[in-house]
């Protein structure tokens, strides 16, 4: 039984490695997805600003085109001032000219506002592009690292699985059975622990002298009365 108890500690270490690899199978893809979504969100944010910049540019060109037509219309009205013959016609024409001038003012104001908004937006886009490049470099490096680790997970899992198979047959069946049952029940799957400074290495509860003596003999499976884990003697730390 002594050899089986010692080998249970080795089996526990292998199972912890396998459990870490299993978690990696879930955690790495989840982290990769999160990093990719962060980049996608940043790209979409920049694209929205670029679309808005294009809209402002398009609207500016439209206003400038309309302004040319309005200015041409204004010139025609002003030329007609020399042709009118009555004060009534003159006043009516002046009223039309005033309305046209108001339209010119509105268009010129709109053009200036679009230019100012677009200049401000382009400045922010330059900043966003720099921030995105830094984010992209960092995230892609991390994604590459995670994918590389993920590629090795399966190979490592197979290696540890083979080690476990070899070791398990060297341990008494009853010891493996008790270990497996406890492993399913306890937190973190740690079913076997060493004696650490006179205490259970799992829950750190002090062990009674008589209990320690029983554990030290290593001729039977002894479980901690508090946490239920199998407790194995560790000579080098016991006084």
Q: In words, what does this structure look like?
A:
The protein is mainly α. 77% of the residues lie in helices and 4% in strands. The chain contains 4 helices and 3 strands; from the N terminus they run αααββαβ. Strand 1 and strand 2 form a beta hairpin. Helix 1 packs antiparallel against helix 2. The mean pLDDT is 90.
- Assembly state: single chain
Individual helix count: 4
Order of helices and strands: HHHEEHE
The order of strands across the largest sheet is: 2-1-3
End-to-end gap: 23 Å
Features:
4 helices, 239 residues, mainly alpha, single chain, rod-shaped, 3-stranded mixed β-sheet, 77% helix
Nutshell version of this structure?
With 239 residues, the chain is mostly helical. It contains 4 helices and 3 strands, in the order H-H-H-E-E-H-E.
How do the strands and helices of this protein lay out in sequence?
Elements: H1 2-80, H2 87-168, H3 173-185, E1 192-196, E2 199-200, H4 209-217, E3 230-232
Parallel strand pairs: 1-3
Antiparallel strand pairs: 1-2
Helix pairs in contact: 1-2
């Amino acid at each position: 039984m002594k050899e089986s108890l010692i080998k249970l500690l080795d089996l526990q270490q292998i199972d912890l490695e396998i459990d870490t690899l299993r978690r990696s199978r879930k955690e790495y893809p989840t982290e990769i997805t999160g990093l990719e979504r962060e980049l996608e969100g940043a790209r979409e944010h920049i694209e929205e600003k670029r679309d808005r910049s294009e809209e402002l540019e398009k609207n500016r060109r439209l206003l400038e085109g309309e302004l040319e037509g309005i200015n041409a219309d204004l010139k025609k009205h002003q030329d007609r001032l020399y042709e009118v013959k009555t004060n009534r016609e003159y006043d009516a024409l002046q009223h039309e000219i005033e309305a046209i001038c108001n339209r010119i003012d509105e268009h010129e104001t709109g053009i200036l506002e679009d230019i100012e908004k677009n200049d401000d937006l382009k400045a922010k886009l330059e900043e966003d592009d720099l921030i995105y490049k830094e984010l992209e470099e960092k995230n892609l490096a991390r994604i590459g690292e995670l994918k590389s680790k993920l590629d090795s997970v399966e190979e490592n899992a197979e290696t540890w699985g083979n080690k476990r198979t070899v070791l398990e047959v060297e341990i008494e069946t009853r010891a493996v059975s008790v270990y497996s049952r406890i492993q399913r029940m306890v937190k973190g799957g740690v079913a076997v622990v060493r004696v650490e400074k006179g205490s259970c290495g799992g829950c750190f509860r002090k062990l009674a002298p008589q209990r320690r003596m029983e554990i030290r003999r290593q001729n039977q499976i002894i479980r901690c009365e508090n946490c239920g884990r199998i407790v194995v003697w560790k000579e080098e730390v016991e006084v």
